[in-house]
Amino acid sequence: MNVCTQLFHGIFSAMTKNVLAIGVCLVVVISGCSFWDNSTTYFNTYYNAKKLMNETEEEFGYHDEIVKPPAPRVVVPQEPDIVLEKKTGELPKYLKDFQIKPEKLQPVQVKVDSIIIKGSKILAIHPKSSFIDGTLFLMAQAFFYRSEWLPANIKCQELIEQFPNSSYSPDAHLLSSKSYLMQQNIPKANTMLSRTVDVAWQQKRYDVLAEAFRLQAETALDQQDVDAAERPYRQAIVQTDDNVLKARWQNELGLLLYRLGKFERAEKELAKVQSFDPEPVYDYESRVYRAAALMRTKRYTESAAMLDELEKSRKFDDYNKMGFITAERMNWLRITGNNDSLKKMEMYADTANVNSSAVLAANFQTGMKLYREKDYTNARKYFAKARTKRTPVFDGASLLFSLLNQREEKQMTANLYEQKLATPDSTTNRDSIKTALAHVIFELGRVHEQLGNADSATKWYLYAADIAPVADTSRAQYLYNYARMIDSANTESADSIHQIIFDKYKRTQYGRVSQVRLGYTNYAIADTVRDVFESGMHLRKIGSYDIAMKQFHRVADEYPQSKYAPQATYLIGWIWQEQWKNRDSALFYFSRLVRYYQESEYAKEVYYAVVYATTNNTKDSVAKPYDKPNNDSKDSTKHGELQQQPNQQPMQPDQIRDILKRGGFQRPNNPVSMNPIAVPNENQVSIPPPPQGSNADTVKPGNKPMPQDTSGKKPK
Questions:
Q1: CA distances from 700 to 436, 477, 662, 704 (A)
Q2: What does the pLDDT read at residue 56?
Q3: Reported pTM
Q4: Which string of DSSP letters, residue by residue, matches 242-310?
């Protein structure tokens, strides 16, 4: 710029008297300097950055995958319960091709970094050059390839704001939309996609327009909004006057409906493609998948005739060699039930259309038919074929192949363990074998659940819980999954299972889940006698009488010699009488209090009321105060017989009436009312069977034979 400045100063000094000449010279000098700046920028920096980007994209296979004329696509109807293409991490499948994996980026890492460095140099040194918009877009692309979505978006926004009419504006809008999608910012992505469509229409960038429509449709499908997925294509068909574009949008709409399994509508939309001016690839796709839609609506004759016509057409020879006609003939034979001809067609395809994506997809669909029929052995063979190459069904085929393999493997392992249990020897540790068997059985249940066999999964979970030793903490997981499976049909039984989990395995993660499910507070999980008693007191104060009762029982039954046992026994009686209005049960526990803890203040408080009630009550159901407690109570072995009561003055009738009037004992402070709730004895709770009507109800605790699949066949 120093040379330009000196030249400008000299000319200005020489021509001060000629204003017109000065103006002309100014234009010449300034234009010359601008040209020199642009030239320097282009040849020194921008050209190199552009070249590096081309080399980078060639390394990515960009031109092979995107720039070259597209080939017909493999489109497969969605399955209701099987994900054909799984998500990559948190990103939907349709975005995975935009993300450059580290192993793919590594060979060109230096080039991508150099693009950003050169771009920063242009922005800093040549901010007035004509290549700023192109530089911003190159930098945005480089950041995008490095998976740096935010910097990529910033550069796109700078380009859009500073150069709204730039030829790079549609590309920047589209790249910004992708960046938002990669960040899972769907609202902003949708807004930017709408703007992309407007800008692309304005500049007639139909390549950008096509990609924007596709992203709008895929985003809507990912959000389970089918109507929103159709809308972009219908809008495009109405807005454009170009019959070539109309054919493209019409074809995309038809394929979308075909993917969704809306075959009648798909056939009608695909038929309209021929009324426009389709490009060869879209013409071929519309014909092939229209024939596929026809066969799925039982219009077999029309479908076969259309396939014959396509096969004879010389203009589609290159596409036919890719196996599309063979694949659809396989589908036709499968749907019509012509299994013998299907076998012959498969043998032909294995030699004539080796590794054809369309044929692999047809194999997958045959596998799905066998899978639905529970013919897992033959289904697995077709899934094995379908997973030999990356296609739209690769993930679904791989998953099902793996699950069916696991199913067979775990059934064989379970059979081996059962044989060991059936023929024990002196060295056999039955508990360890049961533990291992239960684990295998549980995993088999998980496999069946993933396969969609809910009844079989329920049976296997129940069997695992039944056979696992009680000391095996993994049993909590088996019980939890069994409860989960029956919850919707039998919530009461599921709650009983959760109660068992909480009682026996409260320290496991499933015990904590059951604690939340049952509404227990942390006070319900206590270790020491004092903690158990205080938790009961806390639960009583907040009105959780059913759980408080369990805690008081733990103190009274498991620690009868502790100093808290008398009060715990007293409070058990109090809850029965005051909260649950059951005087017989209350009398039983007050009698126990008088029998075993006669010196305690609580026994003295209720002594005369107990004597009066037992001597004047003629009901047979009322427990007598001096009856020996049940043998299942631990305190029965830790106390001697009640010693003779000290001499007491007989109470007057009015005194007795007064005691009975206030319930026969001193009421604790601020009791909280609560409806009576039955408290189960954890030692008597059994695993409830599956709900009525389920195929799983044939397997119950104690049954040792292996459960059966829902197919009705005995597991191998």
A1: 20, 18, 49, 9
A2: 78
A3: 0.59
A4: -HHHHHHHHHHHHHHHHHTT-HHHHHHHHHGGGGS---HHHHHHHHHHHHHHHHHTT-HHHHHHHHHHH
